[in-house]
Amino acid sequence: MQRIYLDYNATTPLLPAVVDRMTEVLRDEFGNPSSVHHFGQQAKAAIDDARSDVANLIGADPSEVLFTSGGTEGDNIAIRGAAEALEPTGRRHLVASAIEHEAVLNTLKALAKRGWRTTLVPIGQSGIASPSALREALADDTILVSVMHANNEIGTIQPVAELARIARERGALFHTDAVQSAGKVPVNVKTLGVDMLSMSAHKFYGPKGVGALWIRRGLRVLPLLTGGRQERSRRAGTENVAGIVGMGVAARLAASKMADEGRRLAALRDRLEAGILRAVPGTVVNGSPDARVPNTTNISFDRVEAESLLIALDLEGIAVSTGSACSSGTLEPSHVLKAMGFNAHRTQNSIRFSLGAANTEAEIDRVIAVLPGIVDKLRSLTRTPARA
Amino acid sequence: MSGGVDSSVAAALLAEQGHDVIGLSMQLYDQRGGEQAWGTCCTLDDLHDARRVASAVGFPHYIVNFERQFRDTVISNFVQEYASGRTPLPCAHCNSDLKFSTLLDRARGLGAEHVATGHYARVEQAADGSWLLKRSADPDKDQSYFLFSLTQDQLARAVFPVGGLVKSAVREQARRLGLPVAEKPDSQEICFIPDGDYASFVERKQPAIARGGAIVDETGRELGTHGGVHRFTVGQRKGLGIASTFPLYVLRIDAEAGTVTVGSRNALDQTRLTAGSVNWISIDAPDAPVRVAAQIRHRHKPAAGVVRALPDGRAEMTFDQPQPAITPGQAVVFYAGDTVVGGGWIEAGDRRV
Question: In terms of domains, do A229 and A339 share one?
Fold first, then answer.
């Protein structure tokens, strides 16, 4: 079966150049970067190269880039680390948008259990946070605001620069989860005016298990992992050298291809979106079509359970996704669409198509061709659920 | 696919025979709160076992979320039956109201012709084209009792690949096929109540149910009190908390009055019962009385007698010999030899001969 992968927001395959460089490191450059001798120096140099490449991708200074195990850890260090560092000030209020990734939402929940107040900024049906909503959420003792740059489910890009300015005017730090935007659209920490920014390598053709957190120079954030002095004492533990090196290569390649690839994917995405809306009745796009990452569309199919549609598509060799996957791999209604105020039908019937490097026009056309038949069949067998 | 050996072998055998198999496992309760010790079957680990089997054999496997449907059909019926003084049979409801309805629809939407399960029962087509439900080749494991409410349409779509095997042969097949669940122990309890404490479960779902009442003898004399009718089932002897010179058994439960009637072992025997929502599987509702062997609970040895169809989908069964503890809410299933003639839900027993 010719399989079509349309789930690049979940993860991406490694670029060959990434595999090649990682293989060299795994095979030949095994040194511990903290060692003084040749082997250590070699590994340290490899990490430093990667740090420069990652810093370049986001317009940052390499010394401000901290390597992590991925986006989730970056979000945790940013939020917990800042909250704990500022605990002595007695200011204990945290703000995030209602459509954040669970790495942010559940970190806030955990801190709420330990005495921090938290406020979620409501999001309208556009899927974009409004400056006025943020203003209302802020309080005098707000220490940190976390709003993602691009949403993972619907792809909308948040007005981070404006939101960060508003937060900072009130004396709050600003963190953005840029996991879904870094490598896809230009990300520049200076233009965004944020204090912290987290990213993940495997969303832009790098390896899983490695990410980076950018922390503005001079900002004090308590470490989650204590121990040795790696990463300027901000994250102890011997570095994941091969992973970090892989992230560096991926970041360099993403930066060089971004403009062309972004245009190509946007055209494919628009073709897919228009094709589905035309070919399948009862479909609607979720979130504002104007400010989105170029590779993502999220579409609700009336009277079809997303779970069934996802399985039926997979049996046709087409890999898509819906909502956020939970521990058993089953599907929960999307908290993002819920927060946007859509009813249960729309939140349970939505499918995310996220495109990437391998996709072609022919693939997109095949998806548009098979969808109507699948949806018809599922609709014909939908029975009204029994109510107690 | 529950992740157990029976459904795993069922799926693997079909795949081996060259059928195009899609593995589906039902998630029936919220499993995010990992600390809750849910279920003897279909826990997160079991779902992972099902996935491992599918991967080992080489067919796709998906987990489908039926939490809402399970709550609205099986759990809700379970609680309601206890609240009404009856003793529910959730597995039978799950078969007809979930596995061979919602799950079957789901499977057909994915292009599947049939739904196969690991049940110990057989489906055969009669000469006239109608579908027959028969006992399993393993009398010890037979589950036809729990499948009596399947209709002709449902049976036409049902496949029971291990129904012709005895349990030990199923395990042998699992070993031969190299399935990672070959030595996994059987599950016993009702899947959503792993600790077997039905009363506490029902109270959690419907707190108002824990309403006390009287325990009385057959003359209506009060012998003691109890903490709610849902704690009792007909034929129950333990946990009555009443001192007596002879063993006392629960004879009747009146949910409305809140009374539990107890009496001697002899008083449990009844000769007749009425049943509702009767499903005549292999015949039309009969005009004349039919001689059958009727089974009134899982593991009850079928007893001979005559069944007569009543209006409104009901039936009356008269046994040749009195049967102990005819329990409202359980099923009565009528057999002719190995074949299920039909069955219904027991409404009441009757001592008149």
Answer: no
Q: Does A361 touch chain B (CB under 8 A)?
A: no
Chain A partners of B72 at a C-beta cutoff of 8 Å? 385-388
Q: Across residues A42-58, what is the average pLDDT? A: 97
Distances (CA, A) of B49 to A176, A182, A373, B61, B118: 39, 37, 33, 11, 15
Q: Which residue of A has its CA nearest to B79?
A: A388
Say whether A386 and B31 touch across the interface (CB within 8 A): no
Q: Is A1 on the interface with B (CB under 8 A)?
A: no
Q: Are A178 and A36 members of one domain?
A: yes
B158 strand-pairing partners: B115
Contact A388 B73 (CB under 8 A): yes
DSSP code at position A373: H
Predicted confidence at residue B187, as pLDDT, reads: 78
Same domain, A272 and A228: no
Pairwise CA distance, residues A206 & A204, whole Å? 6
A377-386, pLDDT tens digit by residue? 999 886 644 3
Residue A387 falls inside a structural domain: no
The CA distance from B73 to the nearest CA of chain A, in Å, is 7
Residue A386 lies inside a defined structural domain of this protein: no
- Is A383 part of the contact surface with chain B (CB cutoff 8 Å)? yes
- B211-263 belongs to CATH 3.40.190.10: no
Distance, in angstroms, between B86 CA and closest chain A CA?
Answer: 18
CA distance A317 to chain B (A): 11
Task: Give the residue from B250, B205, B209 showing the smallest Cα distance to B232.
Answer: B250
A388 interfacial to chain B (CB closer than 8 Å):
yes
Most distant CA pair in chain A: distance in Å? 71
Longest distance between any two alpha carbons in chain B, whole Å: 66
Q: Give A67-95 pLDDT, tens digit per residue.
A: 999 999 999 999 999 999 999 999 999 99
Residue B191 annotated among the catalytic residues of the structure: yes
Mean pLDDT by 10 residues, chain B (353 residues): 95 97 89 46 77 95 90 93 94 94 93 96 94 96 96 96 96 95 84 85 89 92 92 91 89 93 93 95 89 95 96 95 94 96 92 58
Whose tokens are 């549609």? That residue is A309
Name the residue in chain B with its Cα closest to that of A329: B63
Alpha-carbon dihedral B72, B78, B79, B80, rounded to 10 degrees? 80
Band (A305; pLDDT cuts 50, 70, 90): confident
The nearest alpha carbon in chain B to A328 belongs to B44
DSSP state of A334: P
Cα distance from A161 to chain B (closest Cα, Å)?
A: 36
B76 vs A328, A381, A388: nearest CB:
A388
Cα A149 to Cα A135: distance, rounded to the nearest angstrom? 18
> What interface predicted TM-score (ipTM) does this complex get?
0.83
Could B63 and A326 be called an inter-chain contact, meaning their C-beta atoms sit closer than 8 Å? no
At residue B38, the pLDDT reads: 46
pLDDT in tens, B241-257: 888 888 999 999 999 99
